[in-house]
């Protein structure tokens, strides 16, 4: 489902997502530079009770944020040249480590995403809004629950 959201509404969606996710969930974020992927992640982290500076892990591939309701494993796979390179940074270990995994630029590793995940695509609409498409891949029940967040 696609919707046009203001930045305030995008923040509200992130708050709702933080309440929705459970340990071992994966959020796959897709969108160009500046669409709000990291901002969405920061809000989710804050709502999970994670303190500290949440920034894009561009030069680290993954940053671990511990504490709060559950750990957050924040990936940025922009610099990978092959989807299978994600395994060299411990990808599988993070997926099954009782935390929330958020992957920026997830389209780069789409062939390596788990069977079930939340896909959020964010597109520039104008300076004040974004077009957002969100769905739960691989689980119809959770897809129905996710759609209620809008």
UniProtKB/TrEMBL annotation:
Belongs to the TsaE family. InterPro entries: P-loop_NTPase, T6A_TsaE. The keyword Nucleotide-binding applies. Keywords: ATP-binding, Cytoplasm, Magnesium, Metal-binding, Nucleotide-binding, tRNA processing. Its main location: cytoplasm. Signal peptide: none annotated. The keyword Cytoplasm applies. The lineage of its organism: Bacteria, Fusobacteriati, Fusobacteriota, Fusobacteriia, Fusobacteriales. This is tRNA threonylcarbamoyladenosine biosynthesis protein TsaE. It is found in: Cytoplasm.
């Amino acid at each position: 489902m696609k919707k046009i959201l203001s930045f305030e509404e995008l923040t509200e969606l992130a708050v709702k997502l933080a309440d929705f996710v459970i340990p071992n969930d994966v959020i796959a974020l897709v969108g160009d530079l500046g669409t709000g992927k990291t901002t969405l992640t920061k809000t989710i982290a804050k709502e999970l009770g994670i303190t500290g500076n949440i920034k894009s892990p561009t030069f680290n591939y993954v940053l671990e944020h511990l504490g709060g309701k559950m750990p957050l494993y924040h990936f940025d796979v922009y610099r990978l040249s092959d989807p299978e390179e994600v395994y060299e940074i411990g990808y599988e270990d993070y997926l099954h480590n009782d935390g929330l995994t958020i992957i920026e630029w997830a389209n780069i590793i789409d062939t390596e995403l788990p069977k079930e995940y939340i896909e959020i695509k964010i597109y520039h609409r104008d300076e004040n809004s974004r077009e957002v498409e969100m769905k739960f891949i691989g689980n119809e029940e959770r897809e129905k629950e996710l759609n209620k967040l809008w």
